[in-house]
Specification:
The protein has 296 residues and is an all-alpha fold. The protein is built from 13 helices and no strands. The termini are far apart. The mean pLDDT is 93.
Length: 296
């Protein structure tokens, strides 16, 4: 039982939004998979890294976002933990501070480069939601920050956990390309909140460009970096992996054609289908790096 001024455990879990942890944990797994280090010898570090990227850093970003969006949520989504009063008073802010500190402590235990990545991710998390910076006010900048935090930085973290060193330029290249593509995924996520963004003056891409143009831009931004990935894998003598990524991309393009027929209605459908193919390509690319390094 909790006191009148204490949040219930269930409300805190809801605030952490476990469903959002999957993308960074998957990207972390790609970082692990792209190295040739023996998994059996490093499984405690891998588990700690998964906890860092999902339940800690990603969860921190969710708490920070809900805290600074509490006034807007009170109008648009009053059932959320903070505006509903289930996380009362300033508990949201102090939970964000606590989760930030826990994230930094765990990252420090995993090595210098993991700590650097965690500091960058947490800085983006606060800058995305907190004034006066509030990167989310502009869809171009905000989505780039989220893409980096959800795909690129966790990928680099996974590689750094395994090697205890700065990842290679090839790892940086693939992590950066898939981060760029994640910008389009974030744009599709913005379709569900167009009305709320208009009221709160958040200039998401669907607000700035309109749903049709925003969906087309999102498709280009998701597809273009994957074309580059295919080219890089071919140039790195990984033709079978390149072909597999190309097949996944072609399937996405087929799905994009349907998405563009009614982007507002079909954005959730594409997130469940096309994005699944996108992250599958990420893992294939990571395994390509593993085979390239192993053959060297």
């Amino acid at each position: 039982m909790t006191g009148l001024n204490t949040p219930a455990p269930g409300a805190v879990v809801e605030l952490l939004k476990p469903i959002t942890w999957f993308p960074p944990m998957w990207a972390f797994g790609c970082g692990v998979a792209c190295t040739t280090e023996p998994l059996a010898e490093r499984w405690p570090l891998i588990i700690a890294g998964i906890i860092l990227t999902g339940p800690l850093v990603c969860a921190t970003s969710q708490i920070v976002n809900d805290w600074y969006d509490r006034d807007v949520d009170a109008i648009n989504e009053p059932y959320r933990p903070i505006p509903s009063g289930r996380v009362p008073g300033t508990w949201g802010f102090w939970l964000a501070i606590l989760w930030t500190l826990m994230s930094l402590c765990v990252a420090a235990l995993l090595g210098l480069w993991v700590l650097v990545a965690a500091v960058a991710g947490l800085a983006f998390a606060w800058a995305y939601s907190a004034p006066p910076i509030r990167l989310k006010k502009n869809g171009w900048i905000g989505n780039a920050a989220v893409g980096a935090c959800y795909e690129g930085l966790p990928w680099l973290t996974g590689a750094a956990v395994m090697t205890s060193a700065l990842p290679s330029w090839q790892v940086f290249a693939l992590a950066g390309l898939y981060s760029f593509g994640a910008h389009g995924i974030m744009t599709l996520n913005d379709f569900k909140s167009i009305e709320g963004d208009l009221k709160s003056e958040v200039r998401s891409l669907p607000v700035q460009l309109g749903p049709e143009r925003a969906a087309r831009v999102a498709c280009y931004m998701m597809a273009a970096p994957q074309v580059v990935v295919v080219g890089l894998l071919f140039s790195w003598s990984a033709p079978y992996h390149a072909a597999a990524v190309a097949v996944a991309l072609l399937a996405q393009i087929a799905l994009m054609r349907r998405l563009l027929s009614d982007p507002r209605a079909l954005a959730p459908w594409y997130n469940a289908t096309g994005v699944s193919l996108y992250v599958t390509g990420m893992l294939i690319s990571a395994l390509a790096l593993r085979s390239i390094v192993g053959a060297a």
